[in-house]
Amino acid sequence: MLLSVALAVTPLGTYIQAQPTGHMPATLAALEAYPSFFHRVKVVVRAKAEGTLQDVFVTDGERRVRALNVAPPVASNTDLLEIEGTYWDVGRLRPGDPRVADHDIVRLSERVLGKPWPSSGELKLLIADSTSRADETETTTIRNITLEPSRYRNQPVTLTGRFRGRNLYGDLPEAPGVSSDDFVLQSGGAAVWVVGMEPQGNGFELDVMARVDTSRWLEVTGIVSGRDQLLEIDARTITAIDRSVAVETPAASLRPVQGPAPEVIFSTPTPNDTGVATSELVRFQFSRDMNAASFSGNVEASYVGNAAATNNNTQALSLELTVEYRPRNRVLNVNFAEPLLPYRPIEIKLGRNILALDGASLVPYSLQFATGGP
Fold first, then answer.
1. Contact, 205 vs 216, CB < 8 A?
2. Are residue 269 and residue 358 in the same domain, yes or no?
3. Rounded CA gap, 65 and 28, in Å?
4. Considering 203, 220, 254, which residue would you say is the last residue of a domain?
5. What is the mean pLDDT of residues 276-298?
6. Is the model's pLDDT at 161 over the cut of 50?
7. Partner residues linked to 321 by β-bridges
8. Do the domain assignments include residue 259?
9. Pairing between β-strand 124-133 and β-strand 331-336 as defined by DSSP bridges
10. Nearest Cα residue to 124 out of 9, 32, 24
11. pLDDT of res. 240
């Protein structure tokens, strides 16, 4: 029985004509490495199709992603495709989510996983909006480097783009961590990290943490390095240019675009941990770069259950704490003003008013654990 999700397949040997739509250029390596960042994001990738009419995948030779609305390959057809669509980690959605209602996810999950709805990470899909044969181009742009990094690896390039500071608009999933001066260069919806030089030169000096400086345009010459999932340009020269000199970016892409909602991806203690030291430093790590100021007043901790009735005083419900955000690792440290009481259950809540750098609200998070002895 054929899946209904394959209904949009085009005739063999033909392609849907792609139109410029502002999809974020990415690689399959990036989708694999940062599923929480790309979940629900419109992306464009270059890959080859493989599989059958019922099960189509797009692949770069090392990785593959299950794809819907992509035609299975014709025998001996090795065309590189440019595919625009939305990337979904379906298990992050509630069963029956209307955004994927047209794709019969229940039947697909039953067939592939043996259950009606996947858990997070079990079923990742690229649902295509359009597919075209990838054009070969000699133009060196941030977009082309991002889509096919292997073509440019270790080669010198000259790129123009808009200075975006230390990922102040959430253009990329993480920082390379080469230095505190690393910055993002963005153009035409594509972005890349620039490392090895401070963003300054003849007549200009930019601050990687100042949004006011993101109106500036730069020309960067350097060597393509980094990994397929997170490219870097190892800069040799940086020059300030007029915006009119830049050749790529349409006006629509200059507006700061809010990225996906940030999430807590790790904590210590871990959820429902027991025997935690009463002097424990609590840490949370996030999927995106966060606005440090937004943590103030939006992190709450308390004893829960019977432990809350300490000394019959309802004021004892709340615990006094301080927070410290470390942007390099996207880690929030939570310190308690006094040691926690032994053998007590604790709950820490992170509210939705905590924001990423681009203003996207945190998915609210609650961590519960229990202390051990003194």
1. no
2. yes
3. 7
4. 254
5. 91
6. yes
7. 336
8. no
9. unpaired
10. 32
11. 94
Residue 245 pLDDT greater than 60, yes or no:
no
Segment 278-293 mean pLDDT: 90
Instruction: Read off the amino acid at residue 99.
Output: R
What's the CA gap between 190 and 139, in Å, rounded? 14
Q: Which residues contact 32 (CB under 8 A, 6 or more apart)?
A: 63, 65, 229
Tokens 């010198």 belong to residue: 156
Q: What is the CATH number of the domain that holds 343?
A: 2.60.40.1220
Last-in-domain residue among 133, 159, 182: 133
What separation, in Å, do the N-terminal and C-terminal C-alpha atoms of the chain show? Answer: 62
C-beta separation of 177 from 76 below 8 A: no
Number of domains in the chain: 3
- Rg, C-alpha atoms of the chain: 24
Regarding whether 163 and 128 lie in a shared domain, the answer is no
pLDDT confidence of 20, banded at 50, 70, 90?
very low
Question: Could you tell me the two tokens for 35?
Answer: 């599923």
Is 0.70 topped by the overall pTM?
no
- H/E run at residue 111: helix 105-113
d(CA 131, CA 141): 21
